[in-house]
């Protein structure tokens, strides 16, 4: 009966997780578990816009302009980190070989670093694969049509590594965290599946478990 979330599990015992799961977890651990453990998904107009944006980006051909090579839909895998996924675009400066990951987003910059964590994880994958240091990348937002540079600081790297570890533990556990209804829920496409208002008030699981407690 071990679990409390896989106490004692080493990094080698944990599953490889997708880059997208990191942003889902940073936004909401329950959303992450619903999508990646329970395979739940639902579209709303926000996710539909995001899917359409990525289809346009991913369908473009590689090209070279002004000494920079633009590679789209770059598949990456980092065994040491336990990560794999696809980067929307990797720019390569031909004169130096320096790589620069770019992630495309439907909305606008957020106050929380959800997008920066995903982008930093992409850079960490590229670093493991190429053994070069990647100091910055960029986020491009469709709503503002603006590109935001992101420096991969020590603090952001540490935060990203922590999230990677937490996601791997969560997905290895097979558990789904309890709901916590707040303002984020209004923008979540899984709100009808998650039912945060209803389940937050539901005490039946605890009640049933209590029936079987040793007296």
Protein architecture, described:
Helix 4 links the parallel strand 5 (98-105) and strand 6. Helix 1 (19-27) crosses helix 5 (154-173). This protein is 40% helix and 22% strand. The chain has helices at residues 19-27, 29-36, 45-58, 114-130, 154-173, 191-194, 196-201, 204-211; strands spanning 17-18, 63-65, 68-78, 83-93, 98-105, 136-141, 146-151. The protein is an alpha/beta fold. Strands 1, 2, 3, 4, 5, 6 and 7 form a seven-stranded mixed beta sheet that branches. The chain has one domain (12-177): Alpha-Beta Complex (Lambda Exonuclease, Chain A), CATH 3.90.320.10.
Question: Would you summarize the structure shown here?
Answer:
The radius of gyration is 19 Å and the shape is globular. It is α/β, with parallel strands linked by helices and 215 residues long.
* Largest sheet properties: 7 strands, mixed
By CATH reckoning, the class would read Alpha Beta
Number of separate helices:
8
Uncertain stretches? 43-50
Q: Total domains, how many?
A: 1
- Beta content comes to 15-25%
The CATH topology is what?
Lambda Exonuclease, Chain A
In total, the number of strands is 7
Order of SSEs, N→C? EHHHEEEEHEEHHHH
Mean residue pLDDT: 82
Termini separation comes to 20 Å
> Quick one: overall form?
globular
Q: Summarize the amount of helix as a percent range.
A: 40-55%
